[in-house]
Each structure stands twice: as structure tokens, then as C-alpha cells.
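Internal tracking record. Fields below are filled automatically when a chain is submitted to the structure queue. Please do not edit lines marked as system-generated. If the sequence contains nonstandard residues, flag them in the REMARKS field before resubmitting.
Queue: standard
Priority: normal
Entity type: single polypeptide chain
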Amino acid sequence: MEDFELLQHSNLLHLVEGEAQLFPDLELIVSEGHTVAQQLPRFHGDGTHLTSCGDVIPTHAHLKPSWVTAYDVAPVTSIEEKKVLLAEALEDDGVLFLEHDPGMAACRLREENGHPVFREAVEL
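SYSTEM-GENERATED OUTPUT FOLLOWS
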């Protein structure tokens, strides 16, 4: 923390802990499965949302809830958090931003046999 004290005291840095509403259409949601207190930005607009999935869903290959990275600090928590993100994306046709996917920046989902699955790539 002391590394950031000068920036914080100069009013150039504002640290945010936990979940937060940064702006009217931008919130931070907290994930604990991949790493402790990872904040995922979620942008709202036009009745839907775009969630930056970070390392919780790094690529479209990780859309299956049980497919987690080998270095998740709490893989069972990752699975549960991923199920919530997927259900929320299905609920309002949300977009999932996949920051580690080399071929697809974002996607939308559809439901198949009671499970969320990839529907379409979304160009950003």
C-alpha cells in the first residue's frame, strides 16, 4: 500500500475495495475464485450489459463452468461464480468480453439443454 500513498495523497489515484458503482453505467463486481478480490468491470446500457470476464472466463473454451484454469486459487468458487456470470448474460442477452481469447473478443450465449452455450461472436 505504501507504494501507492503518494499517488493517493495527490488525488491521482482512488482505490476501490469490493463491489462498487463507479459511474451510472459502470460497476465493479468481485470474483474470489481465480484470485482473491478480482474486480470485473460491467458496463450497462440499452437493457443489457457487457462484462469483462478477466480470468474467470478467459476464452470461449472456458464457457463450460467446470473448465477452470489450473492456477485458480479456489476452483470450486470459480465454477460457482462462472455459473452466475453465465446466467446473468443469458438473462439480458449480455456480452461477455474474453480478454485472453486470441480469436474472439466477446460473445453472446444461448441456452441448450438447460446450459448456457456459445451463440455468436460479437465484434467490439
